[in-house]
Amino acid sequence: MSAESPGARERISHWRQSFRLWRWQRPFWAGLLTLLGGVPIIYIPHANPSLDQLYFRLATTSGSGSLIIGVLLFVLGLTMWFQPHSRVFAGVAAILLGLVSIVVANVGGLVVGFLLALVGGGMGVSWVPAKDRPSPGPKHAAGPGGEPDPAAPEPAPAGADDGRNGGRRDT
Questions:
Q1: Who's near 59: CB < 8 A, 6+ residues apart?
Q2: Full-model pTM
Q3: SS3 of residue 50 by DSSP
Q4: Are 70 and 38 in contact (CB under 8 A)?
Q5: Which is more confidently placed, 43 or 123?
Q6: Three-state DSSP class for 1?
Q7: b/e per residue, 78-98, with b = 16+ CB within 10 A?
Q8: Radius of gyration of the chain, Cα coordinates, nearest whole angstrom
Q9: Which of 88, 116, 164, 169 is the most buried (most CB within 10 A)?
Q10: What pLDDT score does 37 carry?
Q11: What's the CA gap between 138 and 140, in Å, rounded?
């Protein structure tokens, strides 16, 4: 190994920092939960669980319905990751598919897939990029350590004359 090439520890550290930056720029956890919500919805109707020698089947009236819902949830989770600007559409669609899965896919993949799709879709709808988040106002201004900033201006009491309306008090 040459002195110029980075070691394994530096490469891993760089990869972790790159992944962290990528994850912060999109609704990562919303996409992950939506992806995971599709797994039980697809798996449970097509599995052959057994208890000792007793085989039973959790089949739906339409096994393809659960397959379609699960694949669509998987695609919506990937959409939240790779096209974060369409997160609201993907979140609403995930919520609707989660609700439909109750009827079509064995009570939403035995409730697990339903809950994951609902929570992931809700997180996708509510996620806001960092540049669009409102900044805290002067009332919430805090200095280092979370204490109120003494340099922050105090809000004027209600009805006080601040000189902007010609000395009139609005009541």
A1: 45
A2: 0.68
A3: strand
A4: yes
A5: 123
A6: coil
A7: ebbbeebeebeebbebbbebb
A8: 26
A9: 116
A10: 94
A11: 5
φ, ψ dihedrals at 142, nearest 5°: -130, 145
Which stretches within the chain are classed as H helix? 8-24, 28-46, 63-82, 87-104, 106-110, 112-126
Q: Could you tell me where the beta strands, DSSP code E, fall in the chain?
A: 50-51, 54-55
pLDDT of 74 over the 80 cut:
yes
Tokens of 52: 């000792």
Q: Look-up: residue for tokens 């096994």? A: 63
Give me the residue label for tokens 């530096």. 10
The three-state secondary structure class of 44 is: helix
- Alpha-carbon gap, residue 24 to 53, rounded angstroms: 49
Tell me the pLDDT tens digit for each residue of 40-57: 988 887 777 677 777 766
Q: 161 versus 129: which is more confidently predicted? A: 129
